[in-house]
Amino acid sequence: MADTNDIIIIGNGPACFTAAIYAATANYKLIVIETHRIDSDTYNFNGCDKICGLENTETCSSYIEKIKEQTKNFSVKIKNGKIKSFGYKNYLYKIEIGDETIYGKSLIIDDKEIFDKYIFNKIDGRMIFKKGCDLDGKETDVSKSVFLCGSADADVEKEAIVLAASGCIAALECKEFLGLIK
Hints:
Number of domains: 1
Organism: Hamiltosporidium magnivora
Protein name: Thioredoxin reductase
Oligomer: single chain
GO biological process, one term: cellular response to toxic substance
Keywords: Flavoprotein, Oxidoreductase
Structural class: alpha/beta
Largest sheet: 7 strands, mixed
InterPro entries: FAD/NAD-bd_sf (IPR036188), Ferredoxin-NADP_redctase_2 (IPR050097)
CATH architecture: 3-Layer(bba) Sandwich
């Protein structure tokens, strides 16, 4: 088995990269899987130039490029590609992209399409994988190790600053979870 990441982050928006930066400052081993492209009609980027480090940012694409560059400055691995398969077994997430398999102890998801495809909410807020993804063959509740932010979190507004904050919160919740399983 390849090296196991503490955190796999899926997405390509302000929340995704903010989560990666916060997780990296805690020295967690992580990888970002870029799954979709943000378009300026999807989010309200007004005021994003007021975020520290993102001054003089005027467009959606320049905002994403700057925050992505900041993420790379923390030595975070960023992998581009379409997810071929997604699974969960023995408390590990297994994601195949191209010819690479990525393993992780926890997920931060900033991609509603990925969330809807592989996970669904059940009664009492539990998160259960869709049929075929839980390789243990059970209805495993993964709500303690999957954290939603940005476009995957239905309660989050689509304003850039709020999305970035949701990434921060997801990273902090994930850090708390990882502290419990050490």
